[in-house]
Structures are given as structure tokens and as C-alpha cells.
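#lab-general

N.A. 3:47 PM
ok so I finally got the sequence cleaned up, no stray characters, all 184 residues accounted for. can someone with queue access submit it? mine expired

B.Y. 3:52 PM
send it over

N.A. 3:53 PM
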Amino acid sequence: MARTLQAASALSIEPACTHGAELSIRVWQPAAILHLEGSRAGDGVADATLPATGRCISDEAGSLLSIGPDVYLRVGAVDDTAALTSRFEVVVDVSSAWVCLALEGSKAVALLRKGCAVDLHPRMFPAGSCCATGMARIRVVLWRPGIESRYEMLVGRSYALSLWSWLIDAAAEYGPQPTKEGIL
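B.Y. 4:20 PM
back already:
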């Protein structure tokens, strides 16, 4: 018998949102996630509109993360793919490879510190910072889009359920309660 496969969150069998007084964790699906490499600004000339390595630029449409020298991830809406193709040597849609998580609230940093070796002090990881790191021994891309207590991360789809379970267990002392709101 043929089986139909559907694009769905790796977390579709679990509640994909937790809320507490001081911490909220949720799964969200951006319009697109594009891997971009090789800026065509010119040989050895930096493009002033691109973020430096370890930094991100966020707007209402999404974020542009600089995760390595001349390597970027665009997370969010993309108005003009043709413009990106002319600006970068490599443009690949990797949306189906990642699951996006958002952690918000006064206890977000405390939770992240339990599984992440990055110094998340605002002096060391200010608004507009991003990095590829490990969280609970799982590779993630972590960024802080603004000054509020909000962090976002990308995790490989095949590891998403493991990370989600770890986050829920590690956050138990902060009291978030799983809900069905926001399930993808």
C-alpha cells in the first residue's frame, strides 16, 4: 500500500508550544530558510550591507545570519530570489532541513545556559549576535534578534524532537506548561 508523506514539523506529535510566567518556548515556521555563500561584492571588498561574522540583521520580514566567513542564512520572507541569486554565488533553499524554535522571557538565558557553552551575557552576546554552537550536544544556530529577552534557534529536523524534549525537561523548574497552541 502506498504511503503519502507530508511536509510537517518534526514536532507534530508533541505539543509545540509551552508557556509559563517567565518562559515561553515555541516552534515556528518561517516562510523560507536560504543558505547563501560567496558574496559578489568584489574581490576582497566587504559588502557593508551584510552583517559581520557572528552578527545578524533582523527586520519585520526575518533575519540574515552570518554564520561564517561569507556564509549566511536568510530566515524569513524572501521578496526577490533573483536579486539574491545575482548577489551570491550560492543560493540554496534549506527550509525543509531545519526546525525553528523561539525562547522568550526572563528565564530564557538561564535555560540556554544549561545546555550551551556560549557566554550569553549581554556584553558578550548582545542583540544582533548569532553563532553555530551546541545545545545539549546537538548542533544549533542560535541568534538574538533584538534587545528583548528573546532567542531563536535552528536545529536540524532529525534532531528537533530530541532538543524539544531536552528543553522541556530543563525548563521544568521555570513552570512552562505544554499547550497545543502553535502546533505546526
